[in-house]
Design a protein that fits this description.
The complex is a heterodimer of chains A (111) and B (116). Chain A is mostly beta strands and 111 residues long. Chain A has no helices and 11 strands. In chain A, a hairpin with a 5-residue loop joins strand 9 and strand 10. In chain B, the strands form 2 sheets. In chain B, strands 2, 4, 5, 6, 9, 10 and 11 form a 7-stranded mixed beta sheet that branches. In chain B, strand 4 and strand 5 form a beta hairpin. Chains A and B meet through strand 4, strand 5 and strand 10 of A and strand 5, strand 9 and strand 10 of B.
Chain lengths: 111, 116
């Protein structure tokens, strides 16, 4: 069936470095994508979203890139901080607004 | 911003008992709420979509008689795990969609269920 997956399960970066988290999706009909951050024992927290008519969107310290040709999504975090340590999920919105989540990437920021 | 709460935040119950989890949208009306289950170190898996005033739509493989969902008002959806067993132990998370912004979902903090 359709699924959204991530390339790497873990990512470790030095504080202050930039982080790039990747995601591959398989449903070419999806038109809305979201990145979430989940800290241990908590619910997902919205970070940034992008629609399929865009290829880049920037927020505060975060940028999402969408490459529809290869069905690839990435999240870039600038100047990564220890508070950024968490599990990051990409999600693909299907019909009726249901979100299909990828497997998640654990980001660890080393001081 | 839109806030979604869940109650309880954690619950421990004996095998065979039923547990009810509440999901509330605190400052907006949610025509649609979603229930997810998350096992340790795994992703969120959608269980069902709950629409106010109508029956829930369950994902394939989710037993509707075991996971009862009621969405009686625009701000409250409940998930009842009936005859719980240890394998039902999981982190249950709800989300609510603001009826005015059809794509945006707001997630609750989750409920940790442990069945002994």
């Amino acid at each position: 069936g359709e699924s959204v997956g991530l390339h790497l399960p873990t990512l470790s970066v030095q504080e202050g470095d930039n982080s790039i988290i990747n995601c591959a999706y398989s449903n070419s009909a999806s038109d809305y994508f979201i990145w979430y951050k989940q800290e241990s024992g908590k619910g997902p927290q919205f970070i940034i979203d992008i629609r399929s008519n865009m290829d880049k969107r920037q927020g505060q310290r975060v940028t999402v890139l969408l490459n529809k040709t290869v069905k690839h999504l990435s999240l870039q975090i600038a100047a990564t901080q220890p508070g950024d340590s968490a599990v990051y999920f990409c999600a693909e919105n299907t019909n009726a607004g249901k979100s299909t989540f990828g497997d998640g990437t654990t980001l660890t920021v080393k001081p | 911003g839109a806030v979604v709460s869940q109650h309880p935040s954690w619950v421990i119950c004996k095998s065979g008992t039923s547990v009810k989890i509440e999901c509330r949208s605190l400052d907006f009306q949610a025509t649609t709420m979603f229930w997810y289950r998350q096992f340790p170190k795994q992703s969120l898996m959608l269980m069902a979509t709950s629409n106010e005033g109508s029956k829930a739509t369950y994902e394939q493989g989710v037993e509707k008689d075991k996971f009862l969902i009621n969405h009686a008002s625009l701000t409250l959806s409940t998930l009842t795990v009936t005859s719980a067993h240890p394998e039902d132990s999981s982190f249950y998370i709800c989300s609510a969609r603001d009826g005015l912004a059809t794509d945006t979902q707001y997630f609750g903090p989750g409920t940790r269920l442990t069945v002994l």
